[in-house]
Design a protein that fits this description.
The protein contains six helices and 36 strands. It has 689 residues and is mainly β. The strands form six sheets. The chain has a 22-stranded antiparallel beta barrel. A hairpin with a 2-residue loop joins strand 22 and strand 23. The chain is globular.
Length: 689
């Protein structure tokens, strides 16, 4: 009941603010035509207005990015309807998941994440290092909800998040900022960009952040003796992008993103820094594109490496043990899209090749033991998509199909040493595996009037198994698990209807309803073998079916210039429907899938100061597959205010995260930091070189 009351309070406060705000502002109506014609690219692969995309797409604009009281990209994404995130401890967070429509189960791999249209999920874990994507390098974000595999392939089963980088807009721009806040947190950023001439543009950004962090292990989970300590953080990065425009048919974009960090794990026994993780992250992208007349093309190359290190120490049977985890996770590939646009149709064809590999191992420091695993996954894809518009652009029909062929090979597992002898029986080369999948999509958008836009769609998505399940044996939360190189893809069929209704020139309502059926979902299943004669040994299997149904709705209100109010609600009900090996899980809710979320914000940029207040209510989340354990629902509020001086050259800002100090849990193991406060100084210079 308390959770419902908190959610109701959010709604009431937003309504109250929306009524009171016009009393303190100019009564000029916002140009709603610009909002109606907001351009997105993710739904079809080409820039076009939202009202011509037959699907549900959430957009985070530059204005929202600039004014949100948030410390990371995934934190900003948490405010979109249908999106759930697991970050709870601010910048110190080591690992955060962002899922769309309840398809996480503590796994990122069911939602595809793109940076400038190119994938950044790792093949090893399906994960995304959200800390490596710096907010100052991002121009806007588009979230396509529902399967996007017909265009984007693997991982796009629940949705697609496309993060679009900033581009130089003026001859010269310098932006520098410094932030200090709670937990002795320091952040510094410097960005330079410029259009050097008509053909050449450059963007360079660097940053460094550090924080003492806090102890995020709840007291009831601490053990004796207590080795829990604060989770410190140090990170930095450099991002560069060069754009060449030689001819309408030949343009080049090159970018390089370097990220390094060191984050405490929250436990210290003997190592000077305690347990910690370190990422040495490289991302290189090259894009060649052009357009002339009705023809356009886009050819891309990309490479991503995660050089991962983790120091792990523990006391086992009163004996100190330490091992270091070292992994090289490489993902590289190429994409080619060609498009032919006519008066009434837009035809696209393309292909993709992707290679993902892992070469990792646990290397013991206190003994000569080691556990090694490696494997490679190749995906070759082809797609065709056609979009038709007719009846004076009142109807937009999209039909598409994509073929993916996946090959797992070069798999090997090796456990050497007395301490890991229990896994010696699984040593050796692993069986190769190949499978294929077709992903169809059919969607229709109907705009009968300027104030009504509705869509209807069917789409199928899939997710290939991660390399960690295919080639690594070891310990997981269920106990000992062994690799299963014969795993196939998870699949999902999604049926959806939705639209946008303009109730007034400044007020829109956007509901959507969906039902999805998943099959071959991955779960851990006991093999029948025992370790030490008593511990069940598990492995992943494609064994279950899942049903999902849900509602998403957004209410946007822009009563006056400079004022924007958003209130959104999501209901999601993903349940296991057929699990013969574990019938006790039938009808259980998927983990980390809150049934109800209420979110919203009030943004004011039309007066002496720029200010945003945002709130979020999230209902209970189950943390175990049998729904025997859960974390309570919570409500949090954040606020930010800033003031520009000297013709937008100097800015003073402040933010409060978790205003009412609600120390909630967003995962089963960690508690949030509570209230965090930061102050920021920014210098912004635009001009000619």
């Amino acid at each position: 009941m308390v959770q419902v009351i908190n959610g109701f309070r959010i709604i009431c406060i937003f309504i109250l603010l929306s009524v009171m705000a016009p009393l303190h502002a100019n009564n000029t109506v916002v140009d709603t035509v610009l909002v109606l014609q907001e351009v997105v690219v993710t739904g079809s692969g080409k820039e076009r207005p939202v009202t011509q995309n037959p699907g549900n797409i959430g957009v985070i604009t530059p204005l929202i990015l600039r004014n949100s009281p948030a410390q990371s990209i995934d934190d900003i994404l948490s405010m979109i309807s249908g999106v759930n995130t697991t970050r709870s401890d601010g910048l110190s967070n080591i690992h955060s998941n962002v899922s769309v429509r309840g398809l996480s189960e503590d796994e990122q791999g069911r939602t595809l994440v793109l940076f400038d249209g190119l994938p950044v999920n790792t093949s090893d874990e399906g994960s995304v290092n959200w800390n490596s994507i710096h907010m100052n390098n991002v121009e806007r974000i588009e979230v396509f909800k529902g399967p996007g595999s017909s265009l984007y392939g693997n991982n796009a089963m629940g949705g697609v998040i496309n993060i679009i980088s900033r581009k130089p807009l003026t001859p010269f721009s310098l932006n520098a900022s410094g932030t200090y806040g709670s937990l002795n947190t320091w952040k510094g950023n410097l960005g330079l960009s410029g259009r050097l001439n008509e053909r050449l543009s450059l963007f360079v950004s660097g940053y460094y952040n550090k924080s003492d962090g806090f102890n995020n292990t709840p007291e009831h989970l601490r053990t004796f003796p207590d080795y829990s300590v604060a989770r410190f953080m140090k990170e930095g990065g450099l991002y560069t992008k060069i754009l060449f425009s030689f001819h309408p048919l030949f343009n080049i974009g090159l970018s390089y993103d370097l990220y390094r960090d060191k984050r405490g794990e929250g436990e210290k026994i003997k190592a000077p820094l305690g347990e910690f993780r370190h990422f040495n992250h490289h991302r290189i992208q090259g894009r060649f594109y052009g357009e002339k007349g009705r023809f356009s093309y886009d050819a891309s190359l990309y490479f991503q490496r995660q050089d991962y290190f983790r120091l792990d120490e523990r006391i086992k049977n009163e004996v100190y043990q330490r091992f270091d985890v070292k992994s090289l996770r490489d993902d590289w590939g190429a994409m080619l899209h060609a498009r032919f646009s006519g008066k009434y149709n837009d035809f696209a064809i393309g292909g993709e090749f992707k290679n993902g590999s892992i070469d990792g191992g646990d290397h013991y420091v206190t003994s000569p033991d080691e556990v090694l695993n490696k494997g490679t996954m190749n995906i070759i894809s082809l797609f065709i998509q056609n979009e038709l518009n007719f009846w004076k652009e009142h109807f937009w029909l999209q039909v598409a199909i994509r073929y993916d062929n996946t090959f797992f090979h070069n798999g090997r597992f090796q456990a050497n040493g007395d301490n890991v002898a229990d896994f010696n029986g699984y040593n050796g080369n692993l069986k190769n595996n190949r499978w294929e999948h077709f992903s169809p999509r059919a969607a229709l958008r109907f705009n009968p009037t300027k104030s009504i836009s509705v869509y209807l769609s069917y789409s199928q998505g899939f997710r290939a198994s991660i390399l960690d399940d295919l080639c690594r044996s070891g310990w997981m939360w269920v106990g000992p698990k062994i690799a299963n190189p014969e795993l196939g893809p998870e699949q999902l069929d999604n049926y959806e209807v939705g639209g946008t209704f303009w109730l007034a020139p400044c007020l829109s309502f956007s509901p959507s309803f969906y039902y999805a059926r998943g099959r071959d979902f991955l779960y851990y299943v006991a093999t029948g073998e025992k370790m030490w004669g008593k511990r069940d040994i598990f492995r992943r299997e494609n064994v279950s079916k899942v049903d999902m149904k849900g509602i998403e709705s957004d209410l946007d209100f822009m009563p006056v210039n400079g004022l924007k109010i958003n209130l959104n609600y999501s209901y999601n009900n993903p349940r296991v429907k057929d699990f013969r090996q574990k019938p006790e899980l039938n009808n259980k809710v998927l983990t980390y899938a809150p049934a109800n979320q209420v979110k919203g914000y009030v943004l004011w940029t039309g007066g002496v100061v720029d200010a945003m207040i945002r709130g979020q209510y999230k209902s209970r989340q189950y943390t175990t597959e049998d729904n025997s354990s859960s974390i309570a629902g919570f409500t949090i509020w954040d606020a930010q205010v800033s003031r520009w001086f000297f013709r937008h050259r100097f800015c003073v800002g402040a933010e409060i995260l978790n205003v009412f100090d609600n120390r909630h849990m967003n995962t089963k193991d960690y508690i949030s930091a509570g209230r965090l406060m930061n102050v920021r100084l920014t210098v912004n210079i635009n001009g000619k070189l």
